[in-house]
Amino acid sequence: MRYLVLLLTLLVTSARADDAKPFKPADYPPGVQTALHYANEECDAQEGGEVTFAPNTVRKIDLTGDGREDYIVDFQDTRCGDRETTYCGTGGCVMKILVKLPDGSVREVFGGHVLRYKIMAPPSKRGAARTIRFDLHGSFCGGFGPQTCIKQKAITATPFAFKQP
What we know:
The chain has helices at about 1-20, 30-45, and strands at about 50, 60, 70-75, 80, 90, 90-100, 105-115, 115-120, 130-135, 150-155. It is of the alpha+beta class. The model is unreliable at about 1-20 (pLDDT under 50). The radius of gyration is 19 Å and the shape is globular.
């Protein structure tokens, strides 16, 4: 009986893996495609070869509270040829946040290196912006390398950046 359960589990798992769609930048709006093009430019500059995007490179979520899908582009699992560090380093990995505007276009509101991020619980007020907690390199809080610096930001259509003191 155990073998039958194991066999069924393996069949279901392999079926799900076959159903996974390959990542295609063309599936996203032009503004997101532009953000993704950064990976190609950076890989070309380093003569690294072909860019491979992970299935989770782009995350769709309403961050601004306006009911439109916004985008988080996270290059953590993106590969440039056989290199694993093209988009990541001691300061984290390249991340971009893009918001959809009322006219349907997409605006990049953040682009930088992030160690980790967490989208905080939705606000109780309907239509309010979501807050993201960013774990950054220690230098953004006056420290150094391994000292994590935590910043929080409510995401709106206004561009922002984190600056080192």
